[in-house]
Design brief:
The chain is of the alpha+beta class. The protein has helices spanning 16-26, 29-42, 56-68, 79-83, 115-123, 130-141, 153-163, 170-180, 193-202, 209-220, 222-226, 230-237, 241-252, 302-313, 320-360, 362-367, 378-385, 389-396, 428-440, 450-459, 466-475, and strands spanning 46-48, 277-282, 285-290, 298-300, 400-403, 406-409, 417-419, 425-427. Among the domains are: 118-262, no CATH class; 277-295 and 336-413, no CATH class; 417-484, Arc Repressor Mutant, subunit A (Orthogonal Bundle), CATH 1.10.10. The radius of gyration is 35 Å and the shape is extended.
């Protein structure tokens, strides 16, 4: 049964312009340059160059000249030219400035040898049957970039049966794996870290006491070694501390990822930081500017805007196809104006937010001393600028500032506050720096535990709990005291 009823709702929706502005605000300087290039390619009405300032008097003087010369001068683009774009032959849309006799030398790119190719080249030096070679190539294909075979032989046997229609046993695969584990680099084909280290240490001179002892430690006391329970290893193996130290030094020389030395540097991703802001110190004053070196100025193409003006004066003289074309041009014109306005608004928002941050942390930016960094959260800057907290978060995300004492992400200036015994509010970043300095200068034989760090911080006037110290230590990517122990 159908029923009709009235319902009143209040919804909050973002306009396309607001969505565009939000997206532009989030991206850093490098991505902004790429976004502008994309917009320039997609919108013919948008072009590079400074915006033209219209001078009314000059336009009035030029109108008479344009009327006198209208019969002699042709427009760069006309509505008819735009309509006939589909009829342009292909040869007019491409250029070929080279003859068949011209030389086009290719510039060679250097690259390191491929890891898989390096292993397969060693396979050809072994005397194997056709089936063994097939099994070996399949095993090589399952070795990852670190040099490990992380799949079980049982699973590979099933894969060979279902995908390659090859019947093989685990014993056959293990024999082939032993051949692969004899390849270079040492440790390749290992199924775990312990096997990888054993393969490497076994190739060293076993007549050397530290090497032989290191092999025994890896084989029989690997868990104690990874947990740095050196006292247990000494007791169980009945060895001195000096013997253990020399053996541990031999183990630390081994490569836990043997395949990493053959990785292609051309394929490694590198992150380039382009600062969004530049802060200079001139005559004792801080000077802030936006880094717009690679961001082009944008403007509206006057040819298309004049086309719209001409059409509006002679609306009745154009066909339906002309009207559709003009509507398309109008949409592109509106899109170009929205994009330019969004870029301007983005610059204003970035500058407003960064100026508020600098004003809030003026002592820190003037001297570069981290002890001068005050506790600051997003809400503080939002109240100072009158912007929403989400807007401040978008500005601070993935943005960097270049100062006279280094390049820093904006997020690093935000930190929570902690009250000291004197009642002064200090930044948690200052506490982290104290912890990092204490751990850096600790005696590695007896590293500082979290409880010891709590006592040191309380001695400096910071009343802090042990779980908070553990949280800050993890944020600094510092392991627990037991794993920092050294002989």
């Amino acid at each position: 049964m159908l029923k009709q009823r009235l319902q009143q709702k209040l919804l909050q929706k973002l306009s396309p312009q607001q969505i565009q502005m939000i997206k532009l605000l989030e991206i850093p300087a490098m991505q902004l340059e790429q976004r502008i290039k994309k917009e320039l390619e997609e919108n013919p009405i948008l072009e590079e160059g400074e915006a033209e300032v219209e001078d009314l008097d000059a336009n009035d003087q030029n109108d008479e000249e344009n009327e006198n010369n209208s019969d002699n001068d042709d427009e760069e683009f006309s509505l008819e030219d735009y309509l006939e774009d589909d009829d342009i032959p292909n040869y007019k849309l491409s250029t070929n400035n080279y003859s068949d006799d011209d030389k086009r030398p290719d510039v060679p790119l250097s690259s390191s040898p491929n890891f898989q190719a390096h292993l397969e080249s060693q396979l050809g030096l072994r005397s194997l049957t056709e089936k063994q070679e097939t099994l070996a190539r399949y095993l090589l294909g399952n070795i990852d970039d670190d040099g490990y075979l992380r799949r079980k032989l049982e699973a590979i046997v099933d894969d060979l049966a279902f995908t390659q229609n090859i019947s093989a046993t685990e014993e056959e695969l293990f024999e082939i794996l032993q051949i692969i584990q004899d390849f270079d680099p040492a440790g390749v084909g290992a199924r775990d870290l312990q096997e990888c280290l054993l393969l490497q240490i076994s190739r060293k001179d076993q007549s050397d006491p530290p090497v032989e002892l290191a092999r025994r430690i890896i084989k029989s006391h690997f868990q104690e070694f990874t947990r740095k329970h050196y006292d247990k290893i000494q007791r169980r193996m009945n060895i001195s501390e000096d013997q253990l130290k020399r053996s541990v030094e031999e183990i630390l020389k081994l490569n836990p990822k043997p395949g990493s030395s053959y990785s292609d540097p051309m394929q490694q991703s590198s992150q380039h930081i382009i600062p969004d802001f530049i802060l200079d110190m001139k005559d004792g004053e801080l000077m802030l500017s936006l880094n717009s070196h690679n961001v082009p100025e944008l403007r509206i193409n006057r040819t298309y805007s004049q086309m719209i003006e001409t059409y509006s004066q002679n609306k009745n003289k154009h066909s339906r196809e002309d009207k559709d074309t003009i509507n398309f041009v109008k949409q592109k014109l509106d899109s170009a104006r929205w994009f330019i306005d969004a870029i301007i608004q983005r610059q204003n928002t970035l500058m407003l937010t960064m100026k508020a941050i600098i004003d809030y942390q003026k002592e820190y930016f003037a001297e570069g001393d981290e002890t001068k960094l005050k506790p600051m959260i997003l809400k503080n800057i939002a109240e100072k600028t009158g912007l929403d907290i989400s807007t401040i978060s978008r500005v601070a995300n993935s943005k960097y500032i270049q100062t006279h004492f280094g390049i820093f992400p904006l997020k690093s200036f935000f930190s929570e506050g902690l009250q000291s015994e004197s009642g002064e509010e200090v930044s948690t970043r200052e506490i982290k720096n104290i912890m990092a300095e204490c751990i850096k200068n600790e005696v590695k034989r007896t590293p500082l535990t979290d409880e010891k760090l709590v006592e040191i911080l309380r001695g400096k006037g910071y009343n802090i709990a042990r779980r908070t110290v553990a949280k800050y230590r993890e944020q600094l990517n510092i392991p627990v005291a037991r794993l920092r122990k050294e002989l």
